[in-house]
Amino acid sequence: MEINDKTPVEKDELTGDKLLSGHEYDSIRELDNRLPKWWLWLFIITILYAIVYLLVFDVFKVAPHQEQEYSREMALAASMAPVQQAMVFDSTIIPMTDKAGLDAGKAVFDKNCVVCHKAQGQGLVGPNLTDNYSIHGCRYIDITRVIANGVPEKGMISWRTQLSKDQILQVSSYVMTLRGSNPPDPKAPQGDPCK
């Protein structure tokens, strides 16, 4: 007995495309379309990328995994930490008064501090640097330590990793010259009065 494999092919009334038999749900019938070429190429490229990724990261170990990169970066940061912590300022330092040092301090201030303290130190997010009040101390050493170490709970970042010790001393000296100036639109005083 010979099986007749020439069953009639059903076609969609609207498009004329071949319908798959047995693929119907809620009166929706599935067409027997070929996948688009862009989709097939994207699928092939994805498989090739996965093979290359496997070879590079797991077979030949040419590049480190993310965990290894993270561990390496953390070890590097830990090795640099003692250098960063070594920036110590004692109470014997005095503010610079020479024009070159103050000009260098103003340049650092204009580049890094204006965003929070405004151009003339009148305060925005950060406190007003021109009045006779201070949140963290009025002495030169206090200002220097705040700039070097920051005050994270107040939003002041530590600048010791981005500025040299000389730059911190210069900008601290420049900030000292702002006290008592009378800029427009100053922020209200914060902290304790300076004596």
Number of helices: 6
CATH-level-2 architecture of the largest domain: Orthogonal Bundle
- How many whole angstroms does the radius of gyration measure? 35 Å
Number of strands: 4
Strand order of the largest sheet: 1-2
- Which structural class matches the secondary elements? mainly alpha
Give the SSE string: EEHHHHEHHE
Task: Determine and state the CATH class of the largest domain.
Answer: Mainly Alpha
Low-confidence segments, given as residue ranges, are none
Core attributes:
195 residues, mainly alpha, Cytochrome Bc1 Complex, Chain D, domain 2, 2 domains, two-stranded antiparallel ribbon
Please explain how this structure is put together:
The protein folds into two domains: 63 residues, no CATH class; 95 residues, Orthogonal Bundle (Cytochrome Bc1 Complex, Chain D, domain 2), CATH 1.10.760. A two-stranded antiparallel ribbon has the order 1-2. It has a two-stranded antiparallel sheet with strand order 3-4. Helix content is 44%, strand content 8%. The chain is elongated, with a radius of gyration of 35 Å. It has 195 residues and is mostly helical. A hairpin with a 2-residue loop joins strand 1 and strand 2. The relative contact order is 0.11. The mean pLDDT is 89. Helix 3 crosses helix 6. It contains six helices and four strands, in the order E-E-H-H-H-H-E-H-H-E.
